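Sample entry (183 residues):
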Amino acid sequence: MVRAWFMDNETTDQRLEHHLNPPEYLTLEELFKSTGVEYFKINVPTYDSDGVLEKIRKARGYSYEDEITCSKECLPDYENKLKNFFTEHLHTDEEIRFVIDGSGYFDVRNGKDDLWIRVEVVAGDMIVIPAGIYHRFTLDVKNYIRAKRYFVGEPVWLPYNRPCDDMQCRKDYLRKLEVGFAA
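Predicted structure, serialized as C-alpha cells:
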C-alpha cells in the first residue's frame, strides 16, 4: 500500500529517502485534500480479468495505455532520463501510473506550504497526479519499476519545468486546490 510523507528539499541524491525525521506520514485522505493526488489499489495477478481496473478506466475515460520499464538494462539513456523525470515539472493532463512490478517515488508539492510530499509506490498501487501540480519522479535504491501509463485520448508527453505558473492548467489546479478536490 502506498505511503506518503513530508520530506525536506534535498536535491543532491534523488534515490535516497530524504525526509524529515521522524517522517510525518499522511493518510490517503490527507494526501488527496492537500494535493488532489488519487490512489487506487489494484490486484496485480488479476488486474486484466477481475474488472476493477477496467471499471476505473471506463469511469475516467482512459482510452490509451502503454507500459514503461525503468531500469539500467531497459531504459535507453537511463541516467539522463532519470534526471529529467526528477526535474520539477507539471503536465497539462493528469498523470496516471499503475505499478506492476518494482517501486519508486513520486514527489508532489502540497498546496498550502509548497512542501514536498514523497509518495512511495509499489506493485499494485495506481496513482493519479492531477494536471497542473508540480511533481517529479525517481526510483528507489532498487532502481527498477514497471508501470502502465494511461491517458484520456492521445498521450501528451510534454513536461513543463517550473516555473510555469501562468499556464492555464496551473491556474485551474490552484483554483481546485482552493475550493477542494472532488473524488
